[in-house]
Amino acid sequence: MAFSDKILEWYNKNKRDLPWRASTDPYKIWLSEIILQQTRVAQGTPYYLNFIETFPKVSDLASAKQETVLKLWQGLGYYSRARNLHAAAKMVVDDYGGRFPDTYKKLITLKGVGDYTASAISSICFNERQAVVDGNVYRVLSRYFGVEIPINSTAGIKYFKELALEVLHESNVRDYNQGIMEFGAIQCTPKNPNCGQCPLKESCVALKERKTDVLPVKLKKTKVKTRYFNYLVPLFVSGNGLNSTLLKQRTGKGIWQDLWEFPLLESESDIDLKTVKENYNRVLGIKEEAMVTLFNTEVVVHKLSHQHLYTKFWILEIDAPMPDAVPISELHKYPVPVLISSFMNAFKF
User: Are 51 and 181 in a shared domain?
Assistant: First the structure.
């Protein structure tokens, strides 16, 4: 039995019951693929269901405000995916009359849709002969065929794409592509793969040569950058007590673009209360004095893919209102990074 036939047979017996599996609607498949990029199925599924409920059609997503989309995405990370999702929905409506393009060449023109996503949508929805290559597929192919070319190198990306096309099933591209991704997700797992019960074990090079723990090969990651974030959390007190604070929207192309956060004092190293007192007027743009206290006794280390943020939250009590202050009762409406959301919950606004 051919490699692709074994994958199909395994998939028909072992596939998970996932909410988008019963559909060939390109909107639903596209949505699931974007959400599941760099996200586990268990974490991404509730988000998928919320998006489908909130935006049943691509036109609903296209007409939504970006802040609404970002708020619904909150907690998934890699927020450029959400911005691209919104932009691509608008492209489908404006350029294709609200109907998803039905070929790889057209799909790959959408914002945020690369080779993998275009291949997945075109093959699953339209059975187009396109091979998907994601992390799971890299792992299965590199182990089965014993390929030691780094999967994140230029040569590796080209080689594995060609190999994936070569072993593509002759007729049932739709299920085969889903099958090989599923196989990598729950059978040929990154650690402790179930080789004893694997239908490919008789021909797997990695198993034969005892290389399952070293394949696939990946080039070393980019060096992690350390940053020091000091969030200044102003609490504006009126005659009725605490009623407002201040949020600022992040701009530029860095992390968390378009999300909201408390005024930020970034430093080159860890700073103390004295330094905060010397700088808060400049950061907040106020002249009033504040009583400053540190909220978290231990530094919060928030880890992103290439950055570690060493974070302190400083509480500033100020007996004066600000014209652009945000009412405490409105805080929940703003899309914020998980780091800020966790603080809000801990502080119990």
Answer: yes
DSSP one-letter code for 45: H
Q: Domain count for the chain, please give it.
A: 2
Average pLDDT of the residues of the chain = 93
Q: What is the pLDDT of residue 28?
A: 97
- CATH number, domain containing residue 106: 1.10.340.30
Owner of token pair 């302190």: 312
Burial class for 21, CB neighbours closer than 10 Å (0-12, 13-18, 19+): middle
Give 50's contacts (C-beta < 8 A, 6+ positions apart): 72
Catalytic residues: 33
The residue range of the domain holding 97 is 3-208
For 297-328, b/e burial (b = at least 16 CB within 10 A) is: eeebebebeeeebbbbbbbbebeeebeebbeb
The pTM assigned to this predicted structure is: 0.85
Indicate the pLDDT class of residue 264, thresholds 50, 70 and 90.
very high
